[in-house]
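Dock C2E; give full complex structure.
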Amino acid sequence: MGNQNSENLHHLLVLQDLQGTRAIPLEAATLSIGRDDKNAIAINSPSVSRQHAILLRISLPDSQEHVFQIIDGNFQGQPSTNGILINGKKITAHHLQHGDVIQFSNQAQAKYYIIPDLSDENLLKIAEGEDFSENRLQEPSPFDTLIGSTDQRQEFSEAAIIRLASFPELIPNPIIEINSLGELTYSNPEAMLQFPRLRELGLEHPVLANLLSLIKEETAVQLIREIEVRGKIFEQAIHYIEESNLIRSFLTDITARKQGEISLMQRDQLLQGVTIAVTSLLIEPNLNTAINQALKLVGEGAKVDRVCLFKNHSHSLSEKIAMSMGYEWFNHHIVSASIDHPHWQDQPYHTFSEGKWYNNLSENEPITKTRSEFSSDEAEIFSLDQTQSFLLVPIFLNQYFWGYLGFYDCQQSRQWTASEQAVLVMLATSVSGALQRKKTENLIQYRALHDTLTQLPNRRLFEQEINNALNDFDKKTQQLAVLFLDLDRFKVINDTLGHTVGDKLLQEVARRLIKSIQPAEIVARWGGDEFVLLLPQASLKHVITTAEAILKAVEVVFSLEGHELYITTSIGITLVDQQNRDPEILLRQADTALYGAKEKGKNQYQFYTDLVNQKLPQKLMLERYLRKALANEELTLYYQPKINMLTREMDGLEALLRWHQPEIGFVSPNLFIPVAEEIGLIVQIGEWVLRTACAQSKAWQKAGFPPIVVSVNLSPRQFCQPGLEEMVTGILAETGLEPRYLELEITESIAIANGELTKQVLEDLHAHGVRISIDDFGTGHSSLSRLHSLPLDTLKIDQSFVRDLTTDSKIPHIIQAITTLGQQLGLNIVAEGVENQEQLDFLDGIKCDSVQGFFFYEPIPSTEVLEILKKMIS
Ligand code: C2E
Ligand code: CA
Ligand code: CA
């Protein structure tokens, strides 16, 4: 026993007085004993002093064990009237030993025991006496000692002590026995304490209810059930003792354990809810969905009635710091939504507790209050929501007090636990994380959709916007306009004053454009000095007003880095009609209209519809693209061989321009050459053609092929260009091509226009050795005699004659006449557009020199020419 842990030892006083005999476990450190009810151990005996003695627990040195000392008298040191006898001896103080008999008076005595603790099961076993004898044999029971050392002079018998000190009496679990008739045969003190109405209620008492029928039904000797008595939950172990026909119950109070289980389960649910909420905030791409889901999960987990998220902002009128409820979850069995209530929108912080809310939350201090603690303003507002208690924690975003989260209980004044607060703080952190991520995402998206220089939407965003606008476009109620805008002369400013000034100018223009439009309208930077605008729901009048406002806004002088800049802008406008719902077409139309505006003299706007009426759009579009064709290397040269009628071999090549526009595909030279002519671009293009053709011809020669004459077409504008001669000779020198292998084709109309000037130019060129050819002969209605004075080498009969050769009976005669006459003038005669044998046979018959046409070759790329050249020399 000595080496046993004191925790395993029980100190017990078995007391006998006028009231009877009872066992009292000594659990407190100090116990008073006396007649007075207020004593820890009250003795019912008139000869016992009001406060007779004190029991003091004393720890033994170097051990965890302790003993009790009994001291005569009260706490004030006043001895008892009749004193104390220990084992018959009078003492004033005494260390109690196991088996000591204490006598307080003739009618009151007690015996002190130290007994080892045993497990409940074991106690029960011993209590039932099943293994008692066995136990006793194996290890000495304290009661052996008890019996052995019992003082013979004590007044109560050994049998009584054993019974009194028997475990059922002592153990703190209720034990109840009934017989097969349902009569209570035994209940221990604890049972009477826990179930005071046991006798009164009998079989009606929950502890006894159904016991008899249960035992009858069950074959097992032992069964366990849970019962609830006066708010406490007991586990009732029921034994049927066959020999004595008794039903014995052993009850354990499991209330605490049950509550622990419930709260554990609740905490589990709460934590699970929080985990899902946090995950949802992490992975759900839609922030609104994520927050709503998180509030719901946490609200359900914490069993609150409302969870709300508030966002800070400045008050709409006073501009003081205020908050608005942005998200709410509520238990709809208990309350209704409060998010739409005006008192939770645009509510200044100073409404609450004189601004304490703001002070606390912004200092990262949670606020928790129950109804009794509400300030009058809180009470007033919270009564509208039935809130009884609340817990608020702040949300910080980048260290700024962004808003707060609240838990609300509307059924009770809940004292918020640390774990509930921890959960709400965790939710606040996660929300903040989600907001931060959203912010970053937004920033990335903003950057992807905005122009860095002007911060205006970029092309991509504008395309999205125009698509959206077209999707909800309803012609009956809406007009939609797209404006394309380009600064006049921006390039000059950029080139002369530098990019810094250019950039500043664009930024300032952007600002002025924003000021010129309505909030629902969009202005975007298209690139360079081009801007696009989208005016949804715009009347024609409004579109005109806007366009005029923009023209005026841009006209105002720009003061940038010490420069006073005056610029203007041109605007092309297209209005959306039913057939035209393709954003690309709309933009193209606006762009075309913009060129219309430029052509009309800049600093003005132009409607696309007006252009359509003028039948201009296609040309304008070509023009626009053509300007980029050279730089973008969209132009190539094809070559069409000419076939000598005698040898039937290739005796010349005509260089023909090909333009592949990436968006529209191949464009016929018949279409774009006149446009290039008109805008003067033909000069640059023509020079490129000439250089490319000469270089190519020279390259073939260098590759060892016999020299072949390459013809290059000259357009009228090119022909009138001063310095043509220098350009041609320059290119010849540059490429190293001998002039006699270059032939220039000019149309009949060029040849006869400008009389003397033309003649001079041709003579100069011819003097260098360059060959001259008259193209499309027969279309200009000029007489051969007029051409006679010019230095010509070749005459090309227009393909329209060849085409109509077999259908128009006059044509063969005309062709024959031209050929004969031309040959007489010493010209080489080429027939164009030969497509069939019949035509070829006729031309053969009239001794035409050469032919050109699809019958032999279509215009082909240089690589295919190379193949022909190879065949010729093999
Ligand atoms: P063109 O100078 O009369 O060129 C002959 C045109 O007739 C070419 O059209 C050629 O492809 C086409 N052709 C040739 N054989 C036949 C045939 O058997 N049947 C038919 N139906 N057509 C045939 P392409 O290449 O479309 O050129 C059209 C015009 O564009 C040219 O007429 C020329 O005036 C102009 N052009 C072409 N390239 C240039 C260039 O580099 N500079 C200039 N200034 N004008 C060019
Ligand atoms: Ca030609
Ligand atoms: Ca021709």
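Observed: The longest helix spans residues 418-449.
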